[in-house]
Amino acid sequence: MIYGAMKFSIGGSLKLAFRPWVEGLENIPVRGPAILASNHLSFSDSFFLPAVLDRKVTFIAKAEYFTAPGVKGKLTAAFFRGVGQLPVDRSGGRGAGEAAIRAGIQVVESGGLFGIYPEGTRSPDGRLYRGKPGGLARVALATGAPVIPVAMIDTEKIQPPGQVMPKLMRPGIRIGAPLDFTRYQGMEGDRFILRSVTDEVMYEIMKLSGQEYVDIYATVAKRQIADEAKLKSDEAKRKADEEKRKADEEKKKADEEKKKGTDRTGG
Questions:
Q1: Which of 68, 77, 230, 244 would you label with 145, given CA atoms 20 to 30 Å apart?
Q2: Global pTM value
């Protein structure tokens, strides 16, 4: 009931304001389990995709969204539950990953649609990054559910980092044909199979999205970008310090010359 109300209010508002275009809706099953594997460009991806589907989609979200204290915390928790987010504690390393996998399996085994971002985090620059083996592939192989590749298009342009007001523009959602991995069922313990399944899904997402593919993890790319930004910042600070030092030396020299001139004239 809450999901329906949130979908009507938030989803309806999103569709009215942004008018997202959609291709491939016929690939979403009317009933029964499926896994929606999407690229991840923006925080809004988890809102635009459910907004255009008739069925409920369940994503996993940080448990902190559901446990914050006070009125604001309760409202935040209610909001995330209302839009179909499932709380998972991600703070425990491998245990956190196992919790996410169990949550996904439960959603699928109950006949629902489970949404997952194989990249594990948002793309830092709009490119498509290597999918993380484990979550997506293990849920698919444990349940036998079809994996439906999804491409979110231009959602990162609506509200880039640092921009307060969203830009009113039409994002796109392209939904591909279901992928069947039942041939690998029972092999979720084989890391080569997990890698193969994940790569096949990412290839389909790449074809749907038209993104440039980068064969490293998005988390690694984010660290590299942060390191490069820090190097540039440090270099800019070094240059500023050097320019200030030179300016101070020139001022000191000018003051000394002025003092010598004053001494010679007896002033």
A1: 77
A2: 0.81
